Amino acid sequence: MLHRRRAPLLAGLAAMSTALVLTMTGPAGAQTGSPPPAAASAAMPSAADPFAVSGVRVDISGSNPTTVRDQAIREAQAKAWAELYRRLVPGGTPPRLSDNEIARMVQGFEIDEEKVSASRYLGTITVRFRPNAVRDALGHSGGATQYVEPPSRPFVILPVTQTEGRTILWQDRTPWREAWEARQPAAALVPLVVPDGELTDAQAISGEDAIAGNAEALNRIAQAYKAGGVVVARTDLPAGGPDPARGMTVDVTRYGLDGTRDNQVVQVKGGGSADDVLTRAVAAVGTQLDESWRREHTMAAGPEHNTLVRIPLSAVNDWVETRKRLSSVNAVTRTNLLSISRNEALITLTHRGDPEQLAQALARQDLGLARTASAAPSAYPGAPLPVPSADWQLTLLPRGSGAASAGAIPSSTSPAASPFQASPMSLAPSSLAPSAPLDSGGTLGAPPRNLGTLPAKSLP
């Protein structure tokens, strides 16, 4: 999907039009819920929601206009579920679900366009699904063992052209940029937004910063569009555009806000006109981004599990860094901090899939999960409750070494999910600290305290 942020005036008009349509649609419009503020819609188009399916066309005939509309909505929801399933489970066949089963997953819908007569209903509808309900359904009625977790926010695409020694991003309207602006919305896994190219964009990042991967500049342009990262698509082109006989080569680098980076080179064959080559290049870059995302974010479907994990600590920064990396693991839906001392922390990870599958996802963030020998609960003087024993240990790995250690877990039966839960208490990230200062002495320091619930990453 490709989305462009509209100017505030256009966004206001769009919001007014949407409100008018919803008012006129009667009972169907009433089910959509409260629409987002106009400002939010401008910064994040509704279709950028990876669990939303837009442009669902329905054509229903019948004798009762109200009944026909209801039937059209049910058909739109069924079509949207099939499209969403194919998006999240590549190569899978959407299962047959009843209207009620699908309706339980639907968060809301919007009627984008409709034409109603006494005997016919023509409409285009956007259907939004509840992310967690979809994740649960994929492993049950959906029949999928794995699915691709889509990005929670779109990525900003920066089409950079290098021509005759010049790096052009904002200065001139290049054929490469025009091709991206002309791209039609598609059912893509990674949603993309083309910047407006206004003065604020040029002040946020330059073409040289984009090519060099300047982290501060990339963060500025991502924050300006409320994006989850930036994609730099760089190509060398003559001033008049590509040579249709030679094709194109595009260097594509995807930057995540968490510091991740993925680089691919896309080759586009020649043939047809220069515009044809540019159009194929844009499509090829989108396909490559989707494939790359699938490789990195495929995870187990099905219900959530809880696993008790012990984290050894040798410095305060170990806990801070561990928490940071855990927030980037999509398979982890919640993290509860049970206790923390100067040399270790005890947490409960809520995740999808068994611990062995979780370990593969953790390894991609340079976190090692390994089974430990069972031990009796540790006793701490003055502790009101015994500290439970953990069968799994989570350790920080050197940056870049996670992929090599992804399969280092001994083959064994998965432990049962721990029923132990921490008390629900809000805890700000800045207030997390060991029970006692870390030092080189042999004392154990203060006993662990129950610090409540560790704030997890934002979930849709």
TrEMBL record:
Keywords: Signal. It comes from the Bacteria. Residues 403-438 have a biased composition (Low complexity). Residues 1-30 form the signal peptide. Residues 403-460 are annotated as: Disordered. Pfam families: DUF2066 (PF09839). This is DUF2066 domain-containing protein.
